[in-house]
Amino acid sequence: MDMQPGQNTALSGGPINISIAVQNSVSSLELDASAFMLTEAGKVTDDAGMVFYGQPKSKDGSVSVDGSGKGFVIDLSRVPPNITRIAITLTIDQGQKRGQRFGMVNSVVVSVEGGGEPLRFAPSVQQMTETALILGEVYQRNGQWKFRAVGQGFIGGLGPLARHFGVDISDDPDAGASAPAAAPTPPRAAAPPTPTPTATPAAAPAVSLAKITLEKKKPVSLQKEGGRFGEIVVNLNWSRPAKASGLGSLFKGNKGVDLDIGCMLEHRNGLKGVVQALGNTFGALREPPFVQLMGDDRTGDSTAGEFLHINGDQWSEFKRVLIFAFIYEGAPNWAAANGVVSIKMPGQPELEARLDSHESGKAMCAIAMLENEGNTIRASKLIEYFSDHEQMDRAYGFGFRWRAGSK
Q1: Which run of H or E residues covers position 393?
Q2: CA 175 to CA 158: how far, in whole Å?
Q3: pTM above the 0.70 mark?
Q4: How many CB atoms lie within 10 A of CB 398?
């Protein structure tokens, strides 16, 4: 069912999946999805009511970021009784500082599945000067859960949007940026405004929206009490050409490159291994090597990229993890791929490493090294290019024996 702004429809109980697909031709424009669990007053009960890259699950477990990092899984049967509305939003990371806006995005589509008939909503964004967008709402009316398509722009980005919903923000990367010179008045809200409570005590520390861009020769250290970091999600994404049509599609003349993410790892007990799609060595998350490749996008159609998960609760077992990317198919043109790797874990700032300092003609790129130093994570950006796995292995001294493989 295709929905229009303001339209609503009933949902059946149980888990629903909300996914967000974006067609974006501006490579430097980065988008973040967030869900806000709201009371009748239109506010969160505490900062744990904001679910996003820095806090991927609500404390009651009813709302969580999905495996792509760009959508949500909501178990309606577990939503607390005082939560009557869940706002689904999309924001441009540091859009104010970078002079970016939703008008630069080709299209945004939000899909809802698992609540009955599949729903699809594609708000018009072409003329938007805002850097935040309220896509839709999952809300309860007379004991019935429903979904409402909204498509409302919001000025200021993620920080002001979070504050609007009552979240205490401690570190906003976009803070201090000037607003657009002539921003239009936001469209009317899908629901009438409600009064702000006189007091909303924060039950948790202020939420940080900070991201850290890794730079070569400037490692960063992350600490967690007990050295248990939760699930560490490593995502590789890259630019893809527009789909070919007609005869071009028959000959795959516009396919671009197929990038694969992988890692070489070493445990403190001497265990070593490689996790990658090549050779179908996908690893395991709950048992050694405590690293798992979450599928392999062989078509290039997935806009979410590829994911490598590390069991951070077992970080004390690790000595080091070398994260790499490999061009399995297509010309080794790293500049055209414009790749970026993000590393996310609960309660820590997101780390980002861009595949820059390009070197054509070599299919391997060593991206980042994660090292265990006293049960902390020392993350270093590498961005070194190699002809093959064996050459990269020699550079970092893992000592594997290599032979040709396929997937």
Answers
A1: helix 389-396
A2: 10
A3: no
A4: 17
